[in-house]
Amino acid sequence: MVTEKSFAKLRMAAPAPDGQRYASGRPVPCQLPADLPFAGRSDHLKTLNTLLPDRASPRSAVVITGTAGVGKSALAIHWSRRSASQFPDGQLYVNLRGFSPDGRPVEPDGALRTFLDALHVRADDMPSELQARIGLYRSLLADRRMLVLLDNARDAEQVRPLLPAADGCLAVVTSRDPMNGLAVTDGAHLLQLDLLDHDEAREVLTQRIGEQRVDAEPDAAQAIIDECSGLPLALAIAAARVCGHRNPSLAYLADELRSARGTLEAFSGRDRASDLRAIFSLSYRALSADAARVFRLFQLQVGESVSTAALAAAAAFPLAEARRLLDVLVDANLVREHEPARYTTHDLLRAYAGELVGDGDCASESDAAVRRLLDYHLHSAYAADRQIYPHRLAISPDEPTEETARERFIDDGAATAWFAKEITTLLDAVELAASRGLDLHTWHLAWCLTTYLNRAGRWHEWFHVQTIALAAADRLGDLARRAYSHRDLAQSAIRLRRYEQARVQMRQALSLYEQAGDVIEQARCHGGMAWGEEQAGRFAEALAHAQAKLMLIPFGEDAAQTGSALNTVGWYHALLGDHEPALRLCRQGLQYFQTAGDLHGEAYTWESLGYIEQHLRNYQTAIEHYRRALTLCDKIGERYLGAKVSARLGEAYHAVGDADGARRAWRAALDTFDEIDSREAAATRATMAHQGHPLTS
């Protein structure tokens, strides 16, 4: 029991003026572990330097947090050893075992005993009550400059009793838990460690195996870095395998890592301290059953990140509950919030989630989750497509039940914005559905993406998903779906200037529709054939197909279809120089589109009318028509048509002597063409140069 007399003796252990040894001659505690090979994290080291007690606005604690294996302890130990001279009265260290294989973290009481021992408190002076020990510990540190490293902490409650209160002391805490509570109640600075960027990862690998090896096999070194996902522990394991393997070739290790992709086989071993499965499991085992279930769903992550709504749908949880569970996973540093309401995890944790699924109940749960996730993507994409192109002939996916989660859109702008944000995820969803043998989901998802991919100029992806969709339709043995996929493949091939391939695909589509007796779809095929011939420069053949389309449709019954047929025939008359009939037909077509409320058709027809008026030398009228077309293109997200119209608008402005207007229009066209169509970009630059407006900047 500490008495007034014994406490006075203990206080005699205050630092001597030189700050190197206690006045009593007792040694200064220097408990820091040995430094490990360290590289990178320069910004984090600078941040830690600003927290030294001799700086303005000192902090009593800093929490270094991050996912398992991200290098929290390595950073803390490296910085602490480098800064030890700033704490001349000693450095205390304890591994709190917050995430340890035996599941038994060090209690604050035990840690305090260790620290008080290091501070030379005799056993008979050790208080019996926890609060008394905390008081004695903080009193002994009050006049000292000491560093306290609390490694591998479980939570704030474990740490709080061990924090010094003196201005000259600093506690450095490492934990997988973010410890927001310490920031709120104790003023701790929170330092989040993310995965290493490419340069830092290369620096770590080089530091571990030597620059000569990395330089000798740069491609293999890059592959190793990629497979390790920027996780320092994974890089350390890989480096150790290189150094300890009978075949030390980096290429050999890179091949091993690639062959084990999607699993943690390449990062496992007998030593639990360097086995990623064992290390990840310490965080996973601490989760509730529901949080663990949501974590396992990340094996299904498609795209760069996944939305809260998609995860809620896959887990069959209400949105609010999904948010709460995702917060738990973020706090456990198993996932991170990539941007508001979107979450991701790195490839190695995703592989771990996949391994957890395995067989039995988890596998069955995974199959059901896949269907729910794909249902969410399908019905959301279908709703978005109906918003951006309501006049498109609809398909009939299974009607969503009240339980089916899906997005709803107030207008076409919201739907287009959703597509833009989710398109990578949706493309991967097509691949996921195909890989699971869910052919109806595969085909329907591909159908839902067609309008957006076409308008956004993502034609390679359009062609790719329709190739997948055609294979699904073939497996289903569904004639109508096969015909549709052949036609869509043809249209995407035209965009990619694969004209012969487009002809073959369109003929197959037409043949199938003829077998089915579907006259409307036959008309659509002729429209597609006309477009293909136009792009190949065969305008007379294009006109013949356009006229066949006009003959096949039930004229006037469907305003949008009638408008399309009239505008198509008028357009090819215009390309052949027959401007008067072209003008009459396109004006008729515009009326039908306006009756139908088909903005997409209107945009194309205003372009047709602008082109005709331009070639009739009615330039101001042409400019007005092109501007109308551009307004509609902006509204419906039709990027390619908008660029084409801008290029034509530039020519019309040039014709009336408006050089500034011409340059603005051509630059607007180039902004899109440079991204999606290099040939059109080159043609626009050539036009500018020919007209005396070469692009100089």
TrEMBL record:
Keyword flag Repeat: no
Chain positions of TPR repeats: 603-636
Keywords linked to the UniProt accession: TPR repeat
Molecular function in Gene Ontology: ADP binding
InterPro entries: Apaf_helical, P-loop_NTPase, TPR-like_helical_dom_sf, TPR_rpt
SUPFAM superfamilies to which the protein is assigned, alphabetical: P-loop containing nucleoside triphosphate hydrolases, TPR-like
Membrane recorded as keyword: no
Protein name stated in the entry: NB-ARC domain-containing protein
